[in-house]
Write a structure and sequence with these properties.
By secondary structure, the protein is α/β, with parallel strands linked by helices. It has two domains: about 1-70 and about 370-410, Urease, subunit C, domain 1, CATH 2.30.40; about 75-360, Alpha-Beta Barrel (TIM Barrel), CATH 3.20.20. About 35% of the residues lie in helices and about 20% in strands. It has helices at about 50-55, 90-95, 100-105, 110-120, 120-140, 155-170, 195-210, 230-240, 255-265, 275-285, 295-300, 305-310, 335-345, 350-355, 355-360, 390-395; strands at about 1-5, 10, 30-35, 35-40, 45-50, 60-65, 70, 75, 140-145, 175-180, 215-220, 245-250, 270, 290, 315-320, 380-385, 400-405, 410. The protein has an eight-stranded parallel beta sheet with strand order 8-9-10-11-12-13-14-15. The chain has a six-stranded mixed beta sheet with strand order 3-2-7-16-17-18, with no helix packed on it. The radius of gyration is 21 Å and the shape is globular. N-(iminomethyl)-L-glutamic acid (NIG) binds near residues 113 and 324. N-(iminomethyl)-L-glutamic acid binds next to helix 4.
Length: about 425
């Protein structure tokens, strides 16, 4: 099946010239093309051709994209999409001035979502999450990471990962599954941290590896969650079992997460709201993507990660929603892009690189996704504008009108 995406106003290729990541100055370069069309075959992009040649080309299907802008399919590389229940009451408390960490300390926060998840069946979780995945697809997202972490018992973590597996089969996008059993300590292990670590290390990780339920292992390294030493123990075992690694680090406090991330060669470190030059020096040159989550800073009303300094230090920066019920109840990647530009002073180009190729790199999909390069998956997001700046300028407005995954239109407005 040969499909032609014909005559868009521009193709924002985010071309990496085979590097498959962007950092420093190159994060600001998108290599847009004009007067070209995209030819896809068997799920891949096979040729970028002049419109005149494309008009003569024999194909099975043509989509006329005149006046539209094509980007690589967007990548949301850090989400907690599978959760049950609502934390609207805590939201009301937060507005009234109660601190997010204080809510966590008294057993609310993550643990209140854990209560809801434990009461839900796999089927219920899949149903709740399906509507969310559809919303992501409508925004042009073709690759999505989803974490567990709201079960915190063997059965409930496996249940969450099974739900992710069902979503993977149900939807045409690429869903990357991450085990986050080390999200926080469940109440039954509050005074016995060693036993919960033992459960993660000796029961959860081996079972999840054997049953192929997650590609990544993640942890929350934070004063209210896991210490650097505890993460170190978990990551040593996870990495031996074949998991790739990523880490929630420097969200509220510096507790040594970056050292552990560097030691274990994490693919990404995520959050970094309280990042300083010391950590930047540790991170530099280690081929680790910094995943920034400005939706969290906006939602919790605190500081933003130092995106400019990271970029100046040649560290690849990705952006993600961190969609979750407590710290970023924001499933809108477009809003996150605008926040990155307005609050962290990222350029429009840096922002687009951050939700395409660098986000793909943060979940090891950079060889096949994240940029429009011949030989990669034909994953595109088509926007109803002839100027790509409009995508970031239109705050929280979805300009995506067509989502293409492996050459097939999977959403059309
Ligand atoms: O990425 N930082 C830890 N975990 C989530 C928040 C989870 C929650 O509050 O439910 C995050 O921000
Ligand atoms: Fe998160």
């Amino acid at each position: 099946m040969r499909t032609l995406y014909f005559n868009p106003a521009s193709i924002v290729t985010v071309d990496t010239f085979s590097k498959n990541v962007k950092s420093g100055r190159s994060q600001n370069e998108l290599s847009p093309l004009y007067g070209k069309s995209l030819l896809c075959k068997d799920g891949l992009l096979v040729e970028i051709m002049d419109n005149a040649e494309a008009a003569e080309c024999e194909v099975d299907r043509t989509y006329d994209l005149s006046g539209k802008t094509v980007l690589p399919g967007l990548v949301d590389c850090h989400t907690h999409t599978v959760f049950a229940g609502s934390r609207a009451d805590e939201f009301r408390e937060k507005i009234a001035g109660v601190d997010y960490e204080d809510i966590a300390r008294r057993g609310g926060g993550i643990l209140s979502t854990v209560n809801s998840v434990r009461k839900s069946t796999v089927e219920e979780l899949v149903e709740i999450a399906s509507e969310r995945v559809e919303y992501f697809i409508s925004q042009g997202i073709t690759t999505l990471e989803i974490k567990s972490g709201y079960g915190l018992s063997f059965e409930d973590e496996v249940k969450l990962l099974k739900a992710v597996k069902i979503l993977k089969d149900k939807f045409p996008i690429d869903i990357v599954s991450t085990f986050l059993g080390a999200h926080t300590f469940p109440p039954e292990f509050k005074d016995n941290r060693a036993d919960y670590l033992d459960l993660i290390i000796n029961k959860m990780l081996p079972y999840i590896a054997e049953n192929n339920l997650a590609e990544y292992c993640d942890a929350f390294c934070e004063a209210t969650a896991f210490t650097a030493d505890e993460v170190d123990k978990i990551f040593s075992v996870a990495s031996n079992l074949g998991f790739k690694l990523k880490l929630h680090s420097e969200q509220f406090n510096q507790v040594g997460g970056i050292d552990v991330a560097v030691k274990h060669k994490c693919t990404s470190v995520d959050h970094l709201e309280v990042f300083t030059q010391d950590q930047i020096n540790l991170l530099k040159g280690n081929n680790i993507v910094s995943v920034l989550l400005p939706g969290v800073s906006f939602f919790l009303n605190y500081g933003y990660a130092p995106a400019r300094t990271l970029i100046e230090n040649d560290i690849p920066v990705a952006l993600s929603t961190d969609y979750n019920p407590g710290s970023s109840h924001i499933a809108n990647l477009n809003l996150v892009m605008s926040l990155a530009a307005l609050k962290m002073k990222m350029t429009v180009e840096e922002t687009i690189s951050a939700v395409t190729i660098n986000a793909a790199k943060a979940i090891s999909r950079e060889q096949s996704a994240g940029s429009i390069e011949v030989g990669k998956n034909a994953d595109f997001a088509v926007f109803n504008t002839d100027n790509y700046s409009d995508i970031v300028y239109n705050v929280a407005k979805n300009l995506n009108i067509m989502t293409v995954k492996n050459g097939e239109v999977i959403y059309q407005k």
